[in-house]
Amino acid sequence: MLLQSPPKKKFINSINYFRGIAIILIVLGHCYDLSRWDISNNVEQVFYSLTLNGSVYFVFISGFLYYHIFYQRFNYKKFMLKKTQFVFLPYLLFSLIPILYTVFVGGGGEFLPEGLKQQPFLATIWYFATGRISYAYWYIPMAMLLFALSPVINWIIKSGRVLEVILFLLPISLIVHRPIDNINPIHSLVYFFPIYLIGIWSSINNKKIYAYLRDHKKKLVLILLAIAIGIIQVLVFQEPGNFHKEFWSITVPDINLIQKILLCFFFMSILDLYEDKDITSMKKAAETSFAIYFIHPFLINALISIATRLNLTYQGNFFILILVTFCVVVISMAIAYGIKAIFKKNSRYVIGW
Question: How far apart are CA 253 and CA 176, in angstroms?
């Protein structure tokens, strides 16, 4: 009797749409400087808290898709090779020139440890290892560590104790927070690891979750709880936005992480309503999400420089934030399509798409 490979899993439109929304929210979180919105009053700070830490969505989706796509037919060598080719290689290409310029022309940059400023080779390695050459690129070193731990993750899945591991690790994430300036990939891994497992657990139990959250009242409870956490974060903890600190220091719990977990289930349940709908704009945003991720930091910096040189004066607000986010996403997509037109199938090695 011939052994048959596991059947291909059904493509989940709603999770794909979630990926499109996730990259838009990540770009939005990076557009506050470009929008020149001076977040001051409590209402604005609550909105700010709700919109930051969008990387949680990316990690959740990554975990969901890991179980849905890779787990049943897992091959560690092929898995890591593809992640190296289509995630790490674009990261190296986009980082190389900025790193070399910063190390050899820019004096090492403000984030480089003082002891490495006279050691260009080690400084270059440090930037590649931390992703700190861009405020967005810290994610890739952390993600590669996460992918490398796949055998451990598979063992957790096979044990049938994914939820128990989540309940053990999540309090640790709430205590350690994100690293200062997102410089330490191991610290980031500790913070995001239970989110990846929550994505996996949600993929395993997706039918039960969708059935439980089908009641619109439960969706409303999720969004109201998320807003309430934002209010507590601003009024009680007085910490709008992301929580960052040294690994071993003890402060308040990172309740923003709980908020984002609630919003993961909110988006998951809301978008399930559109599973059979063909939403072209969301499909385009989803399929180009990694390309947008790699391109948008440089585009934002370029637009900030242009606005400064042209002495453009404007006072930011919610509507300007939405406008500049829309422009950055659309222009990033246009650049991605241009690169794909030039490199064809090989564009995956350049922009991850």
Answer: 8
pLDDT, one tens digit per residue, over 56-98 is 999 999 999 999 999 999 999 999 999 999 999 999 999 999 9
Name the phi and psi angles at 244, rounded to 5.
Answer: -130, 140
**Residues 154, 72: contact at Cβ < 8 Å?**
no
| Spatial separation of the C-alpha atoms in residues 56 and 109, rounded to whole Å | 28
Read off the amino acid at residue 269. Answer: S
Q: State how far the Cα of 164 lies from the Cα of 282, in Å rounded to an integer.
A: 34
- Residue 257 CA to residue 170 CA, distance in Å, equals 9
Q: Largest Cα–Cα distance of the chain, in whole Å? A: 74
Structural domain range at position 243: 13-23+39-282
The pLDDT value given to residue 8? 58
Domain count of the fold of the chain: 1
- The Cα 31–Cα 186 span in angstroms is 27
Report H helices in 273-317: 280-287, 289-309
C-alpha 193/C-alpha 147 separation (Å) is 11
